[in-house]
């Protein structure tokens, strides 16, 4: 029986590839669109952090009293982006 040995160099290269960046950014944008409602402002940010691409969906926290509502919309956006 042959033991599975992952090709760590190939995995690392894949995580840094343009295709991985496109997939991560596209998913973050779907979440932002699903979370956004009328008058809501969500933006995305992406970048390479060490060994992989990452992205974040950032809500408009300028409305000091609506932080909980923004968080709830982001959580609904996660469900809607599936």
Description:
- There is one protein chain.
- The protein is of the alpha+beta class.
- Helices cover 49% and strands 20% of the residues.
- The chain is built from 3 helices and 2 strands; from the N terminus they run H-H-E-E-H.
- It has helices spanning 8-15, 18-35, 67-80; strands spanning 42-49, 52-59.
- The protein has a two-stranded antiparallel sheet with strand order 1-2.
- Strand 1 (42-49) and strand 2 form a beta hairpin.
- The longest helix is centred in the first third of the chain and has 18 residues, at 18-35.
- The mean pLDDT is 85.
Spatial extent as radius of gyration: 17 Å
The helix tally amounts to 3
Overall spatial form: elongated
The main sheet comes to: 2 strands, antiparallel
* Class from secondary-structure proportions: alpha+beta
Uncertain residue ranges: none
Query: Cα distance, first to last residue?
Result: 38 Å
Main-sheet strand order equals 1-2
Helix content: 40-55%
Would you list the SSEs in sequence order as H and E? HHEEH
Mean pLDDT, as a whole number?
85
Query: How much of the sequence is in beta strands?
Result: 15-25%
* Number of beta strands: 2
